Amino acid sequence: MTLKPKDKQLAQVLTAIRTQVGPGRSPLYRWMRQRHADLAAAFDETPPAWGVFAAQMAALGITDADGKPPTAIGARQTWYRVRRDVAARAAKLAQTAIAAPVAPSEIAPGVHRLAAQPDPQAPRPAAKFDIRPARPRDAVRPEAALALPANGGAPGRVAAPLAAVTPSQESGLNDQMRRVSEAMDADNTPMPRVTR
Known about the structure:
By secondary structure, the protein is mostly helical. It has 8 helices and no strands.
């Protein structure tokens, strides 16, 4: 696509710049760039024979940057530069594209996601815990202690029932559970540190 400025002086300057052959902007490059979509479709269908392609470009009078007829290698490299530049321009345009404004009667997609979340002011349901005290390795469950045979069970081992929890230990455990529950309600649950 060629821009056509309204200012005649600017148009003359741009015409001179466009006709001047510079690095990467040979007549072959410009010819390929103007016909990029058609060439890409044709090359996808049938891979090009670059020698034949270069000969056809020379027959049309299209030259490389040095003003010489293009070679097969030069034509192939020019095509890769054209493809790279077209892809870079498309990526740049995609980055600068501005999202379409939302109509007054429309709700933005982010608002839909926020609306699907529960109300932070609403009371949370009470947490239900199924927490059992930890037992030492050698401890026997009370129901298992009752099922032992009268001779004491396995030879050399006597099953001892678990020690009862004292009231001071129970109040400490209740305080700890209350702190954990409050931290969970405040979404501030302490996490263990992971070290390597």
